[in-house]
Amino acid sequence: MRLRYTSGLKHKNPARGLNASGGVLSVAESATSLLASRGSIEQDDDTRLRLAAAVLRAVIEAETDLAEPRYQIFPGATKSSAPLIAITVDHADYALRLGQAADAVIESDDATANGASLPTPQQAIDALEAVDRPPTVAPLSAQRLLKLAASCSQHAAVSSRLELYPLGMAAQRAIRIAMGSLIGPRVLTEAQVRERILGRYPDAEDLPARPTLDSMLIEAGSDLIWHKDGEDGSGYYPSHKGFGPSAGTTTFLHRPGTAADDKKELTEEEAAARQFDEKLTHALKAGGFLVLTTSPRLARHAEAALQRRLASSDFLPVSLDHLILQSLKEEAVQRKVDWSKVIEADVAGPGSRDWTNVIRLASFAKGANQCQAHR
Questions:
Q1: 8 by DSSP, 3-state: which?
Q2: Which domains occur in the chain, in start order?
Q3: Does pTM surpass 0.70?
Q4: pLDDT at 266 (0 to 100)
């Protein structure tokens, strides 16, 4: 029975997975691929993976008995590392060097970022693409490059957003960096907070249970507060009400001050204003991306208030609408497109005859927009 089963598998896996993955896979990747294609009646993830790895070993043993094996097993970077399955020694060596480069990216970031951020996917890709690739190895896609490097590294993992991050990354750091994933819902349960953070960084340190989790969220700068008897049941609710789409008549021009006496009990609106200032100050020092939503009629008030608040810093207001329109107009002039036709197509909207041409024009102007936005 074993010989019949492995004989049926060996012609499809892992050879098929290898071809789709650039000629090299870690054993863990191959076992996961086998599970995805064949399934398992087991429910426990660890058991499923362990059984898949056992079947994989049998498949590899059967392959080595062939006169011309299509792939081989190669040792990992260390004795404790998972081995690699590759079609040539060049592929295996390249994968190991990618793993070393991924570790170098993580070590360099740990030494300079102080846990406030991670290397961007493009920074990681640039570092990996600098690794010498043998001529016998085909170029890999950016996604495959990152995943292979992480799987062959000692200290790196790859996030759902293709960021390289440290294996076992501290829960506090994971919360701080993935804060954006907690924005939007009216309420989040403890399990949902955990799912959103670990969904992005699955190999980070496990998040603690409440009430330790409450403290970690506050420490990270989150405005989520646990309410046992909340309007929609127990869960984490945003503590503010004045900075979202339902801002009402509250504006930055008249928002409460943030230098209140610490001994005085703050109103909810004053607490929200102080917390916003603290987030803004932290972002100015450590860097980051903050989003402030407001109704169109309050947009200019918000911009003016931010300019006053950031007057002492290197603050440069940039209108993305202006950049996009300027680039579109320049592209239209260069390609001798009548601007009035662009306006007509934009008014007509998707589905009109000229809408596709407007989209093409916008795609041509995209590069110019990116360059101006990074200046």
A1: helix
A2: 2-86 (1.10.10), 89-166 (no CATH), 168-239 (3.30.420), 244-317 (no CATH), 320-373 (no CATH)
A3: no
A4: 59
